Amino acid sequence: MRSRKWFTRLFAIVTAGVLAAPMASLQAVVAGSVSGYVLNAAGRPLANLEVELFEAAGGQPVGRRLYAATTSLRGAWAFSGVAPGDYVVRLSVGRQQIGAPVSFERGQGVEGVTLVAPSTAALQTEAAGAAAAAASGGSTAAYVAAVVAAVAGAAVATLATDRIIKDAS
Questions:
Q1: Per-residue pLDDT, 90
Q2: CA–centroid distance for 114 within its chain
Q3: What is the structure's pLDDT at 139?
Q4: Beta strands 96-104; 85-93: pairing state
Q5: Is the confidence at residue 21, as pLDDT, over 50?
Q6: Residue 34: which H helix or E strand, with range?
Q7: Largest alpha-carbon pair distance within the chain?
Q8: pLDDT at residue 38 above 60?
Q9: Smallest Cα–Cα separation from 56: which of 65, 48, 47, 43?
Q10: I need a labelling partner for 49 at 20 to 30 A (CA). Which of 6, 32, 37, 119 fits?
Q11: pLDDT tens-digit series, residues 118-164
Q12: Angle, alpha carbons 53-56-61 (nearest 5°)
């Protein structure tokens, strides 16, 4: 009776080990990776931005977020262990979202997906427009004046930022 329990335990351990190894290698063959970069409109890398991966249907994200990664100093991001299928890689900056559809087959992946973030001027204009709408209480003239002022200020801020970045390199 004791030898039978011992044999049953040994069989369970050996079987688990024999089955686990092929399953792990099968997953490694099936899964792929998705990687790329986040750049600004001038082609410079952007660091510390969150990039997300969603399942996709018809090129649109569906369901919950599957993966998230933060961009490196070079603007690089990567997701590994991704099952074959259709996805959308998405970057959210402010209230703006930039997405790129990606697909791959079994054992493949996608490299070099480049997301271009909206310019600082566009984000400042968006923020100023929202503030102007709230402050104007619905007055179209006040809204337009605030947006024009914000666009002018954003253009100056963008030029100043470009100058600082160029001087630093």
A1: 96
A2: 10
A3: 55
A4: antiparallel
A5: no
A6: strand 32-39
A7: 92
A8: yes
A9: 65
A10: 32
A11: 876 555 545 555 555 555 565 555 545 555 554 444 444 333 333 33
A12: 70
Contact 49, 93 (CB under 8 A): yes
Query: In this structure, what token pair is assigned to residue 46?
Result: 């952007």
Residue 1 identity (one-letter amino acid): M
Distance CA 70, CA 37 (A): 11
Distances (CA, A) of 31 to 26, 35, 57, 104, 107: 9, 14, 19, 10, 6
**HSE-CB of 11 using CA atoms within 13 angstroms:** 6
